[in-house]
Amino acid sequence: MDRRTFLTDLSRYAALCAAVPGNWPLTARPRWQSTPFALGVASGDPAPDACVIWTRLAPDPLAPLGGMDRIRTAVGWEVAHDEAFARVVRQGSYVAAPELGYSVHVDVQGLDPDRWYFYRFTTDAGASPVGRLRTAPPPEAETPLDFAFVSCQHYEQGFYTAFEHLSREDLGLVAHLGDYIYESTSSAGQVRDHYINEVISLEDYRNRYAQYKTDPALQAAHASCPWIVTWDDHEVDNNYAGLVGENIFESEGQMRARRAAGYQGWWEHQPVRVPRARSWADLTIRRSVDWGALARFWVLDTRQYRSDQACGDGTRRVPCGEWAEPSRTMLGDAQERWLLDGMAASAAKWEVLAQQVMMAPFDGDPGSEVFTSMDQWSGYPVARDRLLRGIAQRAPGRTVVLSGDIHSNWVNDLRAGFDRADSPVVATEFVGTSISSGGDGEEQPARVTRALGDNPHLHWQNSRRGYVRCRVTPDEWRAVYRTVEYVTRPGAPLLTPSSWRCGHGRAGVERVG
Ligand SMILES: [Fe+2]
């Protein structure tokens, strides 16, 4: 780490850690020109007695610092039983600071378990939109959960019609598996405007999040229930691995600085409860979220600690080069140990891996040769099979892996290692498509159809946009794929191309619709 990066990180860390005094002198502010709540509100990481609520003051969202003036600003917050805020149960004041982009994160404590609340923020300009949050059930409860998972919302490639539909589902939770923003833009397939071609600095990342957050459908989806958010590559740089960027000419120092900016931008815009970092470039976001005794969500980070993609990344014929080296890792040692030890100790009915890249292999080349992605778990075969054997020992028949990243829907059997054809099925993977990335998409690309025979663990594939709705009970897991036929113009109706069921304790998945 070079000294300048270290000092920059250190000052950001100091800002992050600063206990803002309650009696901070606040300069009288001239009247707001427009609402400071243009980015909406959000809640996340629900616990039985707590939930994070979020907003960011940005009266002019795309201006530097969202149009704020570098003066610290008090923001009121309220949590109530009713939408009219007649029965307020918790309230307080938060001092929003320019060092953290005027983001507001309140970890509201002392709430009742398994209960809906309303929340809002206030300034002298008035109140924010109202959001709804639901606390998690108490630790012993097996209360059913209805949730959806989403990923990949490239703004200029499509409208967020899927979020309009998602907001009307009666959900207790949304899991976002990453690619919440894209750091780069493509002129191909552009149906909405963008402002910066390649985001590098903290100011750039803030601008990008602000643009995405102005979308009303995204705001409505956030306001409808708490989210659990992780990141993928585009929150920093396409297909980065640890400190190796997409552009091989970027030095490790430059990548550390870019990670620091990207990670801070992510934190400032998400309703998350993650530990304070030693530096922004090392922000640790892995965590678990319990839904009573029903489900434990293991929220993973498959970007920050992974070995560089083998054989120059891309799709490669395997074996090749260092592809099967046992030392190569996807999660990093500490996260892998945390996950496997945690799963061994967990008494949850369902273990849910909320993560980024597809875990099942996909051989895209019909015939005896294997042609597969270096960026997905198939590019890290030893680490993948080690994890799958760990699942086989700890939680077979009650583990579900949720994935995103590749802008298409897949339903896969996960075996206790894919290195042997006779390994038993131990878990199910549901891969969810993009919200908008890639434009309208299609039902099933010909290259997938041609390769189905070479991938017997693959039950279904579809490349439309949308999300996956799940209903989880102690006895079964149901997954319903929701799609829209187009995103390059607004208003597509909602379709349900397939539905699936996993019985608790019985590995494997069956189609039910
Ligand atoms: Fe993506």
Kindly estimate the percentage of residues that lie in beta strands according to DSSP. Answer: 25-35%
Q: Runs with pLDDT <50, length 5+?
A: 1-11, 17-24
Largest sheet: number of strands, sense, barrel closure: 14 strands, mixed
Shape: globular
What binds here, in terms of ligands, is: fe (ii) ion
Helix content: 10-25%
Number of discrete helical segments: 8
In whole angstroms, the N-to-C terminal distance is 53 Å
Q: What secondary-structure arrangement, pairings included, does this model have?
A:
Elements: H1 3-17, E1 41-44, E2 51-56, E3 73-80, E4 88-96, E5 103-108, E6 116-123, E7 126-127, E8 131-134, E9 145-150, H2 161-168, E10 173-176, H3 202-213, H4 216-224, E11 227-229, H5 252-269, E12 287-291, E13 295-299, E14 315-318, H6 333-345, E15 350-354, E16 370-373, H7 381-394, E17 399-403, E18 409-415, E19 425-431, E20 441-442, H8 446-451, E21 458-472, E22 476-484, E23 494-503, E24 510-511
Parallel strand pairs: 9-10, 10-11, 13-15, 15-17, 17-19
Antiparallel strand pairs: 1-2, 2-5, 3-4, 3-6, 6-7, 6-8, 9-21, 12-13, 14-16, 18-19, 18-21, 20-21, 21-22, 22-23, 23-24
Task: Please outline what is shown here.
The protein has helices spanning 3-17, 161-168, 202-213, 216-224, 252-269, 333-345, 381-394, 446-451; strands at residues 41-44, 51-56, 73-80, 88-96, 103-108, 116-123, 126-127, 131-134, 145-150, 173-176, 227-229, 287-291, 295-299, 315-318, 350-354, 370-373, 399-403, 409-415, 425-431, 441-442, 458-472, 476-484, 494-503, 510-511.
